[in-house]
Design a protein that fits this description.
By secondary structure, the protein is an alpha/beta fold. The chain has 33 helices and 13 strands.
């Protein structure tokens, strides 16, 4: 038996080679030839490795499962395997080879580069640019920029503006001959915008506002919503649409705060939906104040404050035909555009339900209350939340601000109250919609009465500019104007003002540059370019400008707080109405109808009959509200002919003057007659002034403009005596004659 020491050691073919561990035999190759010893296998392996490459390629490859006859060393394997061949790095052409129109990787002289209009970034950190300049100086440009040719032979940098700015900084520091490695491509605007946005998103360099503006610019360049969603990495189109809306409609103040990071993007997306500059600025202040900042949800609720939300409607919304305001992505709750009509439909539904409940007899009483602040524990009115068993009733409470209905069961009448007769019925008030409609009727009458009155126009302009633009107080801005009829109803409800507004819109159309979501009495849906608009107005005559100012001021001649429709008309509007023919216009436009009378509960119908001089006896024996309304409506035509307007709709009495004039000489007896003549002249529209002068014995062609005619007539009234003012029959007759629009 041989021992280990007697076993001859194998002789290595090369003293520097280190033999690798022997490879285990394959399970498929178990019968290796036994006659091959160790040295022979080494020799055969060396012969294989020394065979020319051409011969190896020609020989048949061994089967995948065959083993090499002998394990080889690492050095032999490294020598046998060819080195991998890497693709050649493209070498940019030299600046001397650069001619406009050439594409590909190019060395572009720095002076031949320019910032791209499609670059979505506006902010660059100076410190970061300095750091990048030092890196370019030390290591060169590692990453290529992307650009395209401009029409004037410049290469605009679509991606890589930071590198360009860093090179410009080096040039400012005295270095010369600087270039940029740019991959010049043919790119449409939408492609350039996409590349710029993608690079800056990858580097996380864009501000929220820059991202919003990038999406809008790409959309305007032709990108589809699906493309934008994919490019910016969103799963749905909603965040893209929200950001585009921010870029389109957010107020300038909000844009600046968003860009500086002082306004959150979530709040900005809600504020951008707010109609009108005043509301947006108010919401911006709430979202950026130093304490108790309003959240996006709180701001969203403000968009529907005071609105009748669709979710509160108990009637069939689809069958009602009422128009609903919705947000595309439900950023706020849908609400009815015509709130009075929706409240009226809700009241009808509530009255029908009350009748059904009374018929079942389960409650001692079923009463309807219209009250935004009702509380069962508030102790208001004839109701309490405690009482004797078996006397409980049900209250159906309608909130006139939101349209919501709540039921208060187990309510009791106070001991001094009764469940029969008028006393319980007096809890129900005239509906909120009646008060709002009364404001709208006064607004339409007063606004049209200002048309053609240049003196009132100038006074209201100075008044409004002095007071500012608070709702109800001398509003000059006409966004969010209350009581303005829908566009398709203006020609019927406000014919004169609608015609003047249409003429003004035509005159301003050349300055319109884009569609807008803002509300405007004249340019709803359009946005003028400020510079073009000013240039257009400066080219107009004084007479044209005064006419346009009169149109705009007329629209703002009445306003109120829609969150408090029960408030009376403001005293300044009552004063204005007393100086115009607004009360007469109101009388011509108002007529009692069944829809109007449905807004009155029984006690107020009794009071209305008495107010109209019909007498309570006409309706007090009626068993139902419907019968009471029918009896009053029998006299509707006669009341309209007599100019009857309910106190709810009338303008309040004009206030007493608060500014007392200093003592003066005895009053000129001609002043009353002169004042009546001036008032009559103010009521005559511009288009009738020529007729007035002709029929007064003058030739209106002697004056060049309507403004000159009116100025002459005012001067004439100031100079002639009282009797002449009183006897100017043509003047007074024309002032009392209704126009075609009336």
């Amino acid at each position: 038996m041989k021992t280990a020491s007697s076993t001859p050691a194998p002789t290595l073919p090369n003293a520097q080679e280190t033999v690798m561990p022997a490879k285990k035999a394959s399970r498929k190759n178990t019968d290796q030839p036994s006659h091959k010893d160790f040295q022979q296998m080494v020799a055969e392996t060396r012969a294989k490795m020394q065979t020319p490459a051409s011969h190896q390629q020609a020989s048949a490859a061994p089967a995948p499962d065959e083993d090499l006859p002998f394990p080889v060393t690492a050095a032999q394997l490294d020598a046998a395997l060819p080195a991998p061949t890497l693709p050649a790095t493209p070498i940019p052409s030299s600046p001397e080879d650069l001619t406009p129109g050439t594409l590909g990787l190019r060395l572009v002289p720095l002076h031949q580069t320019t910032r791209s209009a499609c670059n979505v970034r506006n902010h660059y950190d100076p410190a970061a640019i300095e750091e990048l300049a030092a890196s370019l100086k030390a290591e060169g440009q590692i990453e290529n920029a992307t650009g395209r040719w401009t029409t004037d032979g410049q290469v605009e940098i679509v991606a890589g503006e930071s590198r360009r700015r860093a090179q410009l900084l080096r040039a400012e520091q005295g270095e010369t001959g600087l270039t940029l490695v740019v991959n010049i491509r043919e790119l449409a605007d939408v492609d350039a915008l996409r590349i710029s946005a993608t690079e800056n998103m990858r580097r996380r360099k864009m501000t929220p506002l820059e991202e919003c503006e990038a999406m809008l610019r790409m959309q305007q360049a032709g990108a589809l919503m699906e493309d934008l969603t994919t490019t910016f990495g969103f799963k749905t189109a909603q965040p893209v649409a929200d950001r585009i809306l921010v870029a389109q409609t957010l107020h300038t103040t909000g844009r600046e705060l968003l860009d500086r990071g002082e306004l959150s993007l979530a709040c900005a997306m809600v504020i951008a939906r707010a109609p009108g500059e005043d509301l947006q600025l108010s919401m911006i202040r709430d979202a950026t104040r130093t304490y108790d900042r309003a959240s996006a949800e709180t701001l969203s609720n403000r968009l529907t404050r005071g609105q009748f939300l669709v979710k509160h409607a108990k009637f069939d919304v689809e069958k009602s035909g009422l128009e609903v305001k919705r947000d595309l992505f439900d950023a706020f709750q849908p609400y009815f555009i015509d709130k009075p009509a929706a409240l009226n439909a809700q009241t009808k539904w509530l009255e029908a339900k009350a009748e059904r409940l009374r018929g079942k007899g389960k409650h001692t009483f079923v009463h309807i209350i219209t009250d935004a602040n009702f509380s069962r524990y508030g102790g208001r009115g004839p109701y309490v939340s405690y009482g004797s068993k078996g006397e409980a009733g049900l209250l159906l409470v309608l909130n006139p601000e939101t349209g919501a209905i709540t039921e208060e069961s187990d309510m009791y009448l106070r001991a001094s109250s009764s469940n029969t007769g008028e006393k319980a019925a007096t809890v129900k008030q005239i509906s909120e919609s009646a008060h709002q409609e009364a404001h709208e009727l006064r607004a339409r009458a007063l606004r049209e009465s200002v048309l053609g009155n240049t003196h009132v126009t100038l006074a209201l302009t100075v008044w409004g500019l002095t007071l500012g633009a608070q709702p109800g107080e001398g509003r000059v801005k006409i966004a969010e104007l209350n009581g303005l009829p829908a566009q398709d109803k203006r020609a019927t409800l406000m014919p004169e003002l609608d015609a003047r507004a249409a003429a003004l819109k035509d005159a301003l159309t050349p300055a319109v540059i884009a569609r807008s979501m803002g509300h405007h009495a004249v340019l709803t849906g359009y946005k003028p370019d400020p510079a073009a608009l000013l240039e257009l107005l400066l080219a107009m005559t004084d007479e044209e400008l005064l006419g346009h100012l009169n149109t705009l001021v007329s629209v703002t001649a009445y306003d109120w707080n829609i969150y408090n429709n029960r408030s009376e008309a403001r005293r300044e509007y009552a004063l204005l109405a007393s100086l115009t023919d607004a009360p007469q216009r109101l009388a011509r436009s108002f007529r009692l109808t069944d829809e109007w009378l449905k807004k009155y509960p029984r006690p107020d119908l009794l009071a209305l009959a008495e107010e109209a001089s019909l007498g309570r006896a006409l309706v007090e024996d009626c068993g139902t509200l419907k019968e009471m309304r029918a009896r009053i409506l029998e006299h509707a035509d006669a009341l309209h002919a007599a100019g009857f307007v309910p106190r709810l709709v009338q303008f309040p009495a004009a206030p007493e003057p608060t500014i007392k004039a200093a003592p003066a000489a005895p009053q000129d007896p001609t002043e009353p007659e002169r004042g009546r003549a001036l008032a009559a002249l103010a009521r005559i529209p511009d288009e009738q002034l020529g007729v007035l002068l002709d029929e007064s014995g003058y030739d209106h062609t002697d004056w060049d403009t309507v403004a000159e005619m009116r100025e002459w007539a005012q001067t004439q009234i100031d100079t002639i005596g009282a009797q002449s003012c009183a006897e100017w029959a043509v003047l007074h007759q024309m002032a009392e004659t209704p126009t075609a629009a009336d």
